[in-house]
Specification:
Length: about 200
């Protein structure tokens, strides 16, 4: 079914959600630059694997026929977070990974549980980042568009605000691995089903 100017309704919905993501991330960066307090939404129990799948569907039109995505999503306990917060973190990781991966390249997405946290890893087969520039990828003061660098500013800030950490391991010619550690709330965690998907060319 077609929506506006021949664009399918599902694709149109996906574009609108992408716009919303971009606006939310721009607002987060602006608040960071101007030191404006951010009103936090109600936190709830969330399944990170489901959030990843939702965001991959939104990015589907950037993936089809271009790169191969491998998911290694293990059974996870739930995390406590605002839905829009974890959405922004996951979207920021995936969008940068997709953008950094060349045609014919590979993107690996992994999740697994640690003792006190869950871990999300996104590894791309792009050209990598010079060690001297890695710190700039999380700096809100850097014009990432002008520098041609990935921008992990939003994810870094939101993860830190929630007691987690974000690390970037990259080397020119060897791609980039971004790892997020998100703390667990052991008092109210819920186990979610095991989900492991083999490598496939994503169809959106």
């Amino acid at each position: 079914e077609l929506g506006v100017q021949g664009v399918g309704r599902e694709e149109l919905r996906g574009r609108m959600v992408l716009i919303r993501h971009s606006l939310n991330q721009a607002r987060t960066v602006l608040h960071d630059l101007l030191d404006i307090p951010v009103k936090h939404e109600e936190r709830s129990q969330l399944d990170v694997n489901s959030v990843i799948e939702d965001n991959l569907r939104l990015l589907g039109h950037h993936l089809i026929g271009r790169i191969k995505v491998r998911r290694e999503l293990e059974q996870l306990p739930s995390i406590t977070a605002g839905r829009s917060v974890i959405d922004q973190v996951v979207f920021n990781l995936l969008r940068n990974g997709v953008t950094s991966t060349p045609n014919g390249g590979r993107l690996l997405i992994k999740t697994y549980a640690g003792t006190e946290c869950i871990l999300i890893e996104v590894a791309d087969s792009g050209e990598g980042i010079a060690e001297s520039l890695v710190a700039e990828t999380i700096s809100p003061a850097v014009d990432h568009t002008g520098e041609g660098l990935p921008n992990y500013t939003v994810a870094h800030r939101l993860v830190n605000e929630n007691g987690g950490s974000l690390s970037i391991d990259s080397k020119l010619g060897y791609g980039t691995l971004v790892r997020v550690r998100w703390p667990l709330d052991r008092s109210s965690e819920v186990q979610h089903p095991l989900l492991v998907l083999d490598e496939q060319e994503t169809e959106g």
